[in-house]
Design brief:
single chain, mainly alpha, rod-shaped
């Protein structure tokens, strides 16, 4: 061995480093979780965003015409109003969580594919000879 690094190996190492620092950074972070764990985390976060959005909508409706909003609530049947609000929230949250599930699954599968290729390239790099080809001398 002459102690030289093959230009092809160096190029591959640079490509892998760019992947780690660039777009692959997110893929590696996603794949730190299992598929079900990543999807569950995304759905939990989405549920809290859905609840915050519902609270914001109620706040905006109340702030537009506070007296009218309070009068409407006062004149409405509380059980019927709460059940209608709960049904609306559950349906809206279910739709939002379904979309979140599909998107998180697609993100995980894409990241998993990228990381699998990255790991295969690392394994190939480990088998790659350090010295230049004797035929090139």
């Amino acid at each position: 061995m002459s102690g030289k690094i093959s230009p092809l190996r160096l190029k591959e190492m640079i490509c892998l480093a760019e992947f780690e620092q660039g777009g692959g950074k997110r893929a590696i972070r996603i794949c730190q979780y299992g598929r079900s764990g990543y999807i569950a985390l995304r759905m939990i976060i989405s549920f809290f965003f859905a609840a915050a959005a519902a609270a914001l909508l109620v706040f905006l409706a109340a702030s537009r015409d506070l007296d009218g909003f309070l009068l409407m609530i006062q004149n409405a049947d509380p059980k019927r109003l709460l059940s209608a609000a709960a049904v609306f929230f559950v349906l809206a949250a279910a739709a939002y969580l379904t979309v979140t599930y599909m998107k998180a699954d697609a993100e995980y599968r894409k990241a998993e594919k990228q990381v699998r290729i990255y790991e295969e390239r690392i394994q190939m790099l480990l088998r790659f000879p350090d010295a230049e080809d004797p035929s090139r001398r």
